[in-house]
Amino acid sequence: MQRKNRTKTMMMIDKLAYSSPWRYKSTHLKSCFAIGTLLICVAVRSFFISSIVLILMGCLTVTYSRASLSHYGKMMLWPMAFLIMGTISILADIADEPMGMVHISIGSKYLVILGSSVIESGRLILVSLASVSCLYFLILTTAVLDLMAGLKRLHCPWLIIELMTLIYRFIFVLLDLALSINTAQKCRLGNKDLKTSIRSMGGMLAALFVQAMEKSSALFNAMEARCYDGRIHVLTEHRPAAKKEILLVAAYLTALLALAIFCRTKGGL
């Protein structure tokens, strides 16, 4: 039962990252591959390049992160709410006269949707999804501690790394506490109607805040008892990339950049 509860509270992304066959590949190489692809995709903003990146990263992520196609599809739906809110401002416009594909009268003004706005909205959504797929590839094949170790080798300020480590730790602590409180509330019919659910949510947030402060105090005391000197030291293993892998990534990024420049000269196809 304890193992089952621990598995339930562990985040799916973290589980997939630790079980990925590519977890022990070079962190720097995977970062260059994912971030380089993302930068090219965002800089060019091409339908063709974004489609290639979205398909390629999706295939690699599903193949080498042990994530099923259905799980990956659900994860790609998570940012859709932000994309919809972001594209509404581009898709719709206010005009003094009817024009475009769709026009709705609102008093003396018209809410219009132009053909160019539809194209730009579609471009924004496709580029955003392709960029998200690049980040999913990185986080689903690389453990967070490996990413922090990579940042340390790049001489990232230690304060940022420390904050990332503590925040990462407390994600699991708060998730475990929230699930325990939520389970106790459900056992007492704490969500039988809307009014009770709102009251239960308020009580859970209040209790979660108090317990989070207690957990943080206990964590700091435990760190002090282990000779904490202001920095968190984590054992890491450096895994250099093979020359063949470096050449493959370099050839891929060069080919993608050349194709992106070609699409750019053709009007951003």
TrEMBL record:
Domain of life where this protein originates: Bacteria
InterPro entries: ABC/ECF_trnsptr_transmembrane, Cobalt_transport_CbiQ, ECF_CbiQ
Pfam families referenced in this protein's UniProt entry, alphabetically: CbiQ
Membrane topology: Multi-pass membrane protein
GO terms classed as biological process: cobalt ion transport
Record keywords: Cell membrane, Membrane, Transmembrane, Transmembrane helix
Protein localization: Cell membrane
Residue ranges of the TM segments: 32-56, 76-95, 124-145, 157-175, 246-263
GO CC annotations, alphabetized: ATP-binding cassette (ABC) transporter complex
NCBIfam families assigned: ECF_T_CbiQ (TIGR02454)
PANTHER family: COBALT TRANSPORT PROTEIN CBIQ (PTHR43723:SF1)
Protein known as: Cobalt ECF transporter T component CbiQ
Name of the encoding gene: cbiQ
